[in-house]
Design a protein that fits this description.
By secondary structure, this protein is α+β, with helices and mostly antiparallel strands. About 50% of the residues lie in helices and about 15% in strands. The protein contains seven helices and six strands, in the order αααββαβαββαβα.
Length: about 180
């Protein structure tokens, strides 16, 4: 069952609390706090309560009683995974002002027993904006290595996926038209 937008936002905000605890500098902490406050302020209270109940029932969050009698919401391991997963599905690659004339190529050879992941990964690359050169070879003109490697790591597919940066490709004119370069 897919999570709704409010539920995804709650998980990301709780994950932001984790990021706040890991931030090394006060400047970074304040930046995370501003983003989190804005996110909480945008949530409708009725939707918030219903969404929290659903997240609790799906064991993505738990309650933690504090010594002062207050209660904190805490992400479970599954909740952290779901928050990270939903964040990766919203990956947007920023188009730089000037193209660096390099091509990013993703190749993968994912075994048949992992067909579901292979199909999801292929779909994910298309959603990001990659062009399919061959069934398991995709190309993109802008820097995106970190985003792709994070996606691959999430699926534990490091041994199946390669990322290449290339200077030249034989059908470059066609690809430049495709990407409006």
């Amino acid at each position: 069952m897919r999570l709704g937008d409010v539920q995804q936002k709650i998980l990301l905000l709780l994950l932001g609390g984790l990021a706040l605890g890991c931030s090394a500098s006060p400047t970074q902490s304040f930046k995370v706090l501003r983003i989190m406050k804005k996110g909480w302020d945008e949530l409708d209270q009725k939707n918030l309560k219903r969404s929290l109940l659903i997240l609790y029932q799906r064991q993505l969050i738990t309650e933690q009683k504090n010594p002062d009698g207050s209660v904190s919401l805490v992400l479970t391991k599954a909740g952290k995974h779901e928050a990270t997963f939903s964040q990766l599905f919203n990956i947007k690659i920023k188009k730089p002002k000037r193209w660096d004339k390099l091509w990013r190529v993703v190749l993968f050879d994912i075994p048949e027993k992992h067909r579901k992941f292979r199909d999801i990964f292929r779909s994910h690359l298309r959603t990001i904006g990659f062009h399919e050169l061959q069934h398991s070879v995709f190309i993109f003109p802008f820097p995106c290595k970190n985003e792709i490697l994070a996606l691959v790591k999430l699926y534990h597919a490091e041994s199946f996926v390669r990322f290449i940066t290339a200077q030249d490709i034989d059908n470059e004119l066609k690809l430049r038209k495709k990407f409006f370069l």
